[in-house]
């Protein structure tokens, strides 16, 4: 039976360190500040935004929330981003995705100052990561790397298989694993014989967004399984991208959903905001 990697516990430990860092900075007269911008009424997004606000509050980080109506124009959103870029109280800016169709997402992400880009989605920060000189690293993949580190998983020379090639998780986590000398394979919907590719993996990182797509018999005996999926099935139930029960029979360690990668995502957002404030000090 696999060891359960307790994301909540790791997140709690790191949040304690972040709170201490925040207090230290406050003594120098700087309060880290995060601006979160939500456009529209998507109920899931609202939940995430309030979780971020609560987490900031607990860590002593100033948080400023902007809730804009679903019909907000691109120009109005760009004007708000510009205002936040120039606001000295704000060290991190996050524009919650997805954005409504009248707004060009790339344009907005590129308008955020790369020095306040707490999500790490600006092409400047994407480039910094891919040349091995990261400034802001995207929160979910960063959280995955911290979990592996906390579990004592050494990636040097290991086979990592990433399932999913999104800009938010798949691509950046592949870069991060490469930086730690893993042999990285990135799979996607066109990958042939996906099950066989996954069977090679010492570490599987599933980030496709399809409930329980990764089957237990795809997992090599003793592999580490990181499940980034957060799929709502039915009214309330949350499941990952991995068939957890079956995969646990073969893996040496596995992240649950919920309580795995999710809590780490918000933790790394707090961390990025703190680091950004430190850089201004
Ligand atoms: N610009 C931007 N940055 C984001 O980081 C971003 C975003 N847009 N849009 C939406 C997604 C989603 N996201 C999550 C954060 C925490 C949990 C989390 O803590 N989940 C808990 C469960 C929460 C529940 O029960 O719903 C868990 O997995 O244990 C999940 C998902 C950040 N996102």
Automatic annotation (TrEMBL):
Q: What does this protein do?
A: Catalyzes the oxidation of 5,10-methylenetetrahydrofolate to 5,10-methenyltetrahydrofolate and then the hydrolysis of 5,10-methenyltetrahydrofolate to 10-formyltetrahydrofolate.
Q: What domain of life does the UniProt record list for this protein's source?
A: Bacteria
Q: Any idea of its EC number? A: 1.5.1.5, 3.5.4.9
Q: Which Pfam families match?
A: THF_DHG_CYH, THF_DHG_CYH_C
Q: What is the lineage of its organism?
A: Bacteria, Pseudomonadati, Thermodesulfobacteriota, Desulfuromonadia, Geobacterales
Residue stretches making up the Tetrahydrofolate dehydrogenase/cyclohydrolase NAD(P)-binding domain: 138-279
Show the GO MF annotations.
Answer: methenyltetrahydrofolate cyclohydrolase activity; methylenetetrahydrofolate dehydrogenase (NADP+) activity
Its recorded name reads Bifunctional protein FolD
Organism from which the protein derives: Pelotalea chapellei
Question: What are the entry keywords?
Answer: Amino-acid biosynthesis, Histidine biosynthesis, Hydrolase, Methionine biosynthesis, Multifunctional enzyme, NADP, One-carbon metabolism, Oxidoreductase, Purine biosynthesis
Asked if Amino-acid biosynthesis is a keyword of the record, the answer is yes
């Amino acid at each position: 039976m696999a060891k359960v990697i307790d994301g909540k516990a790791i997140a709690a430990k790191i949040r304690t360190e972040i709170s201490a860092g925040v207090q230290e900075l406050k003594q120098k007269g700087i309060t880290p500040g995060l601006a979160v911008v939500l456009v529209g009424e998507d109920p899931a997004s609202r939940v995430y935004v309030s979780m971020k606000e609560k987490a900031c509050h607990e860590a002593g980080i100033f948080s400023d929330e902007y809730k804009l109506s679903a019909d907000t124009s691109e120009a109005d959103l760009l004007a708000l981003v510009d205002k936040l870029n120039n606001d000295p109280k704000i060290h991190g800016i996050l524009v919650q995705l997805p954005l409504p169709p009248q707004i060009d997402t790339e344009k907005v992400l590129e308008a955020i100052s790369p020095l306040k880009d707490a999500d790490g989605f600006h092409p400047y920060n994407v480039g910094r990561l891919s040349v091995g000189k990261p400034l802001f690293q995207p929160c979910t993949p960063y959280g995955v790397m911290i979990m592996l580190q906390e579990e004592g998983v050494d990636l040097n020379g290991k086979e990592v298989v990433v399932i999913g090639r999104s800009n938010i998780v798949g691509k950046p986590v592949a870069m991060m694993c490469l930086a730690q000398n893993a042999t990285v394979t990135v799979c996607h919907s066109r990958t042939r014989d996906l099950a066989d590719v996954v069977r090679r993996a010492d570490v599987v990182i599933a980030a496709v967004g399809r409930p329980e797509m990764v089957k237990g018999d795809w997992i090599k005996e003793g592999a580490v399984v990181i499940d980034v999926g957060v799929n709502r099935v039915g009214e309330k139930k949350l499941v990952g991208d991995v068939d957890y029960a079956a995969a646990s029979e073969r893996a040496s360690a596995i992240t649950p959903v919920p309580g795995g990668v999710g809590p780490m995502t918000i933790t790394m957002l707090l961390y990025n905001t703190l680091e950004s404030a430190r850089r201004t000090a």
